[in-house]
Amino acid sequence: MQQIDLARAVFLFLPLFLLGLLALPGRAVLRTVAALALAAVVAWLLPQVFERGALTYLASFSTMAGIYAILSLGLNSQWGLAGHVNFGVAGFYAVGAFTSALFTTTMPEGALAAYSQQAFGLQWPFLGGVIMGGIIAAIVGFLISIPVLRLRTDFLAIATLGIAEVIRFIFQNERWLANGPQPMRGIPRPFDCLFKDPACSWLPQGAVDFLAPLSPRDYVFFYLIVVSLILAVVFIALERISRSPWGRMLRAVRDEEASAAMNGKNVTWRRIESFVVGSFIMGVGGAVYAHYVVSIDYSHFNPLFATFIVWVMLMLGGSGSNKGAILGAFVVWGVWSGAAFMIDAASPALQLISPDLPSRGAYLRWMLVAIMLGLIVLYRPQGVIKERKKVSDFMSDKGDASGEGDDATAEQPARQ
């Protein structure tokens, strides 16, 4: 194995290890050992099985799928946990992206200031920008939720969609804020000096020599680690939340809002809290996206790409299931990306049907996503991974087979 392939394998190890922890069954210790061994083997094999260009594309694909998985988890904390119909994912996605960009970039100077404008540039580090992206998105979500969450079902969906479009048009038209219709460029990438020549000044000479064969195009392997770690933190936090008393209360509000209110729960504030949590996660997803693509503008946050495809991801994976939200993001993004190759390969046949048909490939991709959505609703409305109703591993499984697990568990103390 050449040094460049070994360096890529080292970067792939951590994302593969986290994937193993998520996917493998069994107890924690055995699962950790198995994930370590499997990640080491797969990371060593991938550079030898795939060509370097194909492996770079695979890392780029996984990075974007991971960003969409963060958005899907944010939506799951609203719809899957509390039942909010939020069609405004794109709005919070945009707020997080532009906020992080403003906090981490520098103010335009010299000739650049003549055609590039922004409200401020604080040169904060990457992590500070990501956190502020989430916080500002959460604040916007709080302000929106107070009037909007008084609505229900279709009216709530229309209101959130409209608010997302208002946010997008603000970034499009207010040039003083984030350069308006022109792209906001120069968003810094964390530790990109690892792949430059000369490398980071603080890097030990041994690490410099190890990374020397890598070029700036290999940065995607490092950013895949960043996305994987943020995705893991969000997943663990939501898993803890869903199993906490607060998470169980949100499910009660989702399933029987009137009963939860009669039991003394402040339903309005619980709905607002869950909406704010989801908005924060979506803002984090937007911030991570901004630092990956380096240049953003309002067109990146079209509802088709930043709202409805996220809904398809969550519905396919399983509403209410955090693992399902991640699985759905990777599957749907795989279908979306694979459809582009399929359409390119079928272009000669499509041209025989109609000369204009190959140029409409984007619409064919959306048609595939729409067909997938229809199949999900008809044949698997609960998703690939169903919501786990039993939130504690200490609860007895007795009676689950007959559908009486919850009642049987609740009656056990009385029988004793």
What would the keywords be for this entry?
70% helix, branched-chain amino acid transmembrane transporter activity, 416 residues, mainly alpha, single chain, 2 domains, disordered C terminus, 0% strand
Overall description:
This protein starts with a helix and ends with a helix. It contains 17 helices and no strands. The longest helix has 31 residues, at 52-82. The chain has two domains: 1-49, no CATH class; 55-302, no CATH class. The chain has 416 residues and is mainly α.
Short description:
By secondary structure, the chain is mostly helical. It has 17 helices and no strands.
Helices and strands, with pairings:
Layout: H1 3-23, H2 28-49, H3 52-82, H4 89-104, H5 126-148, H6 153-173, H7 175-178, H8 205-211, H9 219-243, H10 245-255, H11 257-262, H12 267-293, H13 303-317, H14 322-345, H15 347-353, H16 361-379, H17 405-415
Helix pairs in contact: 1-2, 1-9, 3-9, 3-12, 3-13, 3-14, 4-5, 4-6, 4-12, 5-12, 9-10, 13-14, 13-16, 14-16
Helix content: 55-70%
Give the CA-based shape: globular
Structural domain tally: 2
What's the multimeric state?
A: single chain
Task: Give helix and strand order, one letter per element, not per position.
Answer: HHHHHHHHHHHHHHHHH
Distance N to C terminus:
64 Å
Mean pLDDT: 89
